[in-house]
Amino acid sequence: MKYSVAVLTSLLHLAASQIDLTNWILELPVKADPLNPNNTEVATILNPQLNAVPRFSNEFFYTTPASDGQVFHTPVFPPNGQPQSGTPFVSTFLRESDPNSTFVHWDSTKGTHSLKADLAVTTFPGTTNAKMIVAEIKVNSNICVGCTSFALFAHAKSNPITYYLKGVFGNFTTTVDIDPAYQLGAKFNIEILVVEGVIYFYYNNELKSPEGGFKSTEQSVYYKAGAFSQNQNSVLHPAAAVNEVVFYSLAVTHNESTTPPQLPPPATTSVVSSEPTASATADAGKGAASPSTTAAATKSSSVVLSLFLAAVGFALM
Ligand SMILES: *[C@@H]1O[C@H](CO)[C@@H](O)[C@H](O)[C@H]1NC(C)=O
Ligand SMILES: *[C@@H]1O[C@H](CO)[C@@H](O)[C@H](O)[C@H]1NC(C)=O
Ligand SMILES: *[C@@H]1O[C@H](CO)[C@@H](O)[C@H](O)[C@H]1NC(C)=O
Ligand SMILES: *[C@@H]1O[C@H](CO)[C@@H](O)[C@H](O)[C@H]1NC(C)=O
């Protein structure tokens, strides 16, 4: 009797929110220890709490009213949220882990790795250069905080307000237009697929990565998903601005397969530039390290970052 109630509850629970959070850690844009001003770590929700019934929920992470998706809500810039330790950016996101909430890393040069999701960017400032990462293959490196093998960015520009999606590969060395006229709230599907050191990206089932995929030599990476703001500048963006993305499904698989995907005929992918936007420069003008400047200045990044963090610490005092 007890057992069937548990099964029923768990079925209802799964039907309600769809996403299995067993292999994720949730990071929140608030301090882990609000009473200790010296502690810059953000709060995390680990398993079994994260995937429990009823589902963990707060103002940053909650189920949609229709119970069909998981909302990730984050302030757009640091004064309104605690930045990720070691970065200037505020975020609410999931990071890959094992079921015991130990971080997981994998070798992008071996086997097959896939992240599939259905999602929508629902709230986003309409200010020029507003930007957020919603899904990523992050490089696991303590010398290069901004390094990324692939990141799906939402961007905006004003006059008139338009939203667009971009993919960046290999520490921002290659940028690809994903959707130049994205409508806020429009649901889309993605797959970030890695096979034996080659990254492929699909948007609404169409291949959008550069022809033949993007070569990756990274041996320690992990998937991330959620709302990862890339803005720090309160002059450029409204003080109360928030980013919101809804995930309707999210699934990661890893296996040993070495078979490359069957690729459709070459898509009309345009490789547009080596910079995600001019905004990197705009925000950097405020003395902050944007992801692209961080990537470009890998060697001196720890120095730049310490200076930057000192500046943020000062600004917050
Ligand atoms: C924070 O750091 C300062 C300087 O190291 C120290 O004096 C202070 O006691 C610390 N505060 C807490 C709450 O640990
Ligand atoms: C999780 O922890 C349990 C208990 O310590 C252990 O038996 C199990 O092997 C661990 N699982 C993983 C994936 O490490
Ligand atoms: C990205 O940066 C990392 C860390 O410095 C480096 O190992 C890697 O080769 C870079 N990848 C690309 C494609 O530039
Ligand atoms: C490996 O994973 C890929 C991506 O999810 C999947 O398409 C493929 O069928 C899997 N192969 C095996 C042998 O499990």
Written description of the protein model:
- This protein has helices spanning 2-17, 279-284, 291-296, 301-316; strands spanning 24-31, 42-45, 61-63, 70-75, 91-96, 112-123, 131-139, 148-157, 162-169, 174-182, 188-195, 198-203, 206-207, 214-215, 221-229, 242-255, 271-273.
- Mean pLDDT is 82; it is low at 1-13 and 274-317.
- The protein has one domain: Jelly Rolls, CATH 2.60.120.
- It has a nine-stranded antiparallel sheet with strand order 2-1-5-15-7-8-9-10-17, with no helix packed on it. Strands 3, 4, 6, 11, 12, 13, 14 and 16 form an eight-stranded antiparallel sheet that branches.
- By secondary structure, it is mainly beta.
- 14% of the residues lie in helices and 38% in strands.
- The longest helix has 16 residues, at 2-17.
- 42% of the residues are buried.
- Residues 257-292 are annotated as: Disordered.
- InterPro entries: Alginate_lyase_2, ConA-like_dom_sf.
- Residues 277-292 have a biased composition (Low complexity).
- Residues 19-254 form the Alginate lyase domain.
- Residues 1-17 form the signal peptide.
